[in-house]
Amino acid sequence: MYPIMNLQDLQGQELSRAERLRDSRYDWRCKKMGSARLARLYEVAGWKDHALRAAGCCTWLQYGANAQGERKLQAGNFCDLRLCPVCTGRRAMKNAAKLSQVMNITESRYGYQFLFLTLTVENCEGDKLGEALTELTKAWDRLIRQRPVVRACKGWFRAIEITHGKETGYHPHIHAILAVGMDYKPRSKQYITQAEWVRRWQMALKVTYKPIVDIRKTKGGKGGMGAALEAAKYTTKDSEYIDRKLDEQEGAQIVVDYTKALHKRRLVAFGGCMKEIAAQLGADKDDGDLVHVDDDGVRDDLAELIEDYGWHFGAGDYILTDRRVNPLKVVKKSE
After folding, report:
1. At a CB cut-off of 8 Å and minimum separation 6, what does 298 contact?
2. Strand, helix or coil at 105?
3. What residues contact residue 280 under an 8 Å CB cut-off, 6+ apart?
4. Residue 165 DSSP label
5. Tens digits of per-residue pLDDT, 64-104?
6. Where are the domains of the chain?
7. How do residues 165-212 score in pLDDT, each as one tens digit?
8. How many angstroms from the chain centroid is the CA of residue 269?
């Protein structure tokens, strides 16, 4: 807990350089060390610009804090690379919060229930990953336009995830949340069985094999946050390429494969009534803001202190570099 300080208290006071950043909602130190590892892999791959961006990501963070020890991020510098552990983690939190909000409004406004759908395709090699992602999204568009699916599904959210295995290659798949009516149940006209989902996804993919499809009921409201987190989680798992036990050349190749395949690709989308609600909330567009990812924490204008933290490369941690009275708070008191 930090004491409340005024401007006079701060004058001439030497700040403790040993204070580390502690944020229970986000492991900044671990994520930043991951971005440093990513920078090294880009360097090995010969992608110097990406290496510099990753290395310079999140070297400065500014928090608003109060006497109760509550903090909220107010500013920071981010590289916004698709594979950066810092940025992907923040983006996943933001997408999950947006999706949860859209689900809550969908449920309260229309009384719909939700299904969690996972759609898979065959694994592929790195040089075929971009092509596989293109076909995956085209197949989704074909699936969602099929009449039985249109009749049953009132709204949807879909996100692409890719996993990688040393022996199995790349495995792209779709996580989707579907909004359906309360009358969507076995033996109803709208109901689509597991076997029918498989058949229709196979048709949409235009393949001869039977793809694996998982469909299950999930919750809206507060209970739907778990489904939102699952659907809006990272597109890639950084543990697959920043693991220091992994050979650098192999890790660099995975990073290059992912970077090429994900370039300028839209990875999440809304449809139906959920798209309308997302548009009303401004949740259908990525504004690039990785600072304000949720509403938790102390409000900017109520923060008593402003704290700056800088990444110390030698210590491998965030160190407090400055702490001062919040000028917004001072102005408010004087008024």
Report:
1. 64, 65, 66, 70, 71, 72
2. helix
3. none
4. E
5. 888 777 888 999 999 999 999 999 999 888 888 889 899 99
6. 1-80+296-335, 88-246+260-287
7. 888 899 999 999 999 999 999 989 999 999 999 999 999 999 999 999
8. 13
For residue 242, CA distances in Å to 22, 42, 93, 297 come to 23, 11, 20, 30
- Which pLDDT does position 8 carry in this prediction? 36
What's the CA gap between 52 and 48, in Å, rounded? 6
Residue 72 DSSP SS3: strand
pTM of the model: 0.85
CA 75 to chain CA centroid, Å, is 18
Supply 150's token pair. Answer: 């249109």
R_g of the chain computed on alpha carbons: 23
Name the burial class of residue 235, with classes exposed (0-12), middle (13-18) and buried (19+) by CB atoms within 10 angstroms of its CB: buried
Q: Are 104 and 220 in contact (CB under 8 A)?
A: yes
Using the structure block, give the residue that is written with the tokens 């990753």: 54
φ, ψ of residue 160 in degrees (nearest 5): -100, 135
Query: What does the DSSP assignment read for 284-322?
Result: TS-----S---S-S--GGG-SEEEEEEEETTTTEEEEEE
How many CB atoms lie under 10 A from the CB of residue 209?
9
Q: Are 192 and 148 in contact (CB under 8 A)?
A: yes
- Strands 317-325 and 71-76, bridge-based pairing: unpaired
Strands ordered across the beta sheet of 113-120: 213-218, 113-120, 169-180, 153-165, 268-271
